[in-house]
Design goal:
By secondary structure, this protein is an alpha+beta fold. The chain is built from five helices and eight strands; from the N terminus they run αββααββαββββα. Strands 1, 2, 3, 4, 5, 6, 7 and 8 form an eight-stranded antiparallel sheet that branches.
């Protein structure tokens, strides 16, 4: 009769083989393929084209709210984290253009992506508060480590969700005016982010 130890060893070996097969079957995805796709964010249409930032400097320069010291600090941090590129797209909601954004940043490691997520949250808290916006966090269930927050001010409201997966950092956000009689829902945003995470999870870089 086979011993319990031998049985355990066999079972562990089978489990490792299954993991290896699953990892091998995960096809590489480009940055563009990691953005929100048509139909994933209900009520929104992806605009044609996208913005591509091949260097940390190009990405930092795209934010007009940063002063010289902030740009320098962010650029240094992204270089330390091994910034490798970022793709960004906008989405429309009917005649409202743009009404949502999706971007993905590739960094040097999973730890760097998690660190940048925390830094990004701190940035929104401090920079937007300085511009008179209100920052309110909300829970994002079903996505490990995801962070959601609402920004409101100057008659505008926006819900945003960050999550890190491997060496990639993702942001999906939607915005609307306080006068909007049929604003998008937070539940719809979170559902879209869950679809995105399920689609990209475990896929290596192209």
């Amino acid at each position: 009769m086979r011993s319990k130890l031998a049985t355990i060893i066999v079972l562990v070996g089978v489990a490792l083989a299954v993991v290896a097969v699953a990892s091998a079957s995960a096809r590489p995805l480009s940055l563009r393929a990691r953005l929100i796709q048509r139909g994933e964010l209900a009520g929104f249409r992806v605009e044609p084209g996208l913005a591509r930032y091949s260097t940390a400097q190009l990405w930092v320069q795209s934010d007009p709210k940063l002063n010289k010291a902030q740009r320098s600090a962010e650029l240094a941090r992204l270089r330390r984290e091994g910034f490798k590129g970022l793709d960004q797209e906008f989405l429309d909601r009917g005649a409202i253009k743009p009404a949502a954004v999706s971007w993905v940043m590739r960094l040097g490691s999973a730890a760097a992506a998690r660190a940048e997520l925390k830094a990004s949250i701190r940035g929104y808290k401090t920079e937007d508060a300085a511009n008179g916006a209100s920052f309110t966090p909300f829970a994002v269930r079903g996505i490990p480590g995801a962070r959601g927050f609402e920004l409101s001010g100057a008659g505008q409201v926006g819900d945003n969700v960050f999550f890190a997966d491997g060496p990639f950092l993702y942001l999906v956000g939607e915005g609307w005016s306080l006068g909007d009689k049929d604003p998008p829902t937070r539940a719809g945003l979170i559902a879209a982010v869950r679809k995105l995470r399920q689609r990209v999870h475990g896929h290596p870089a192209a």
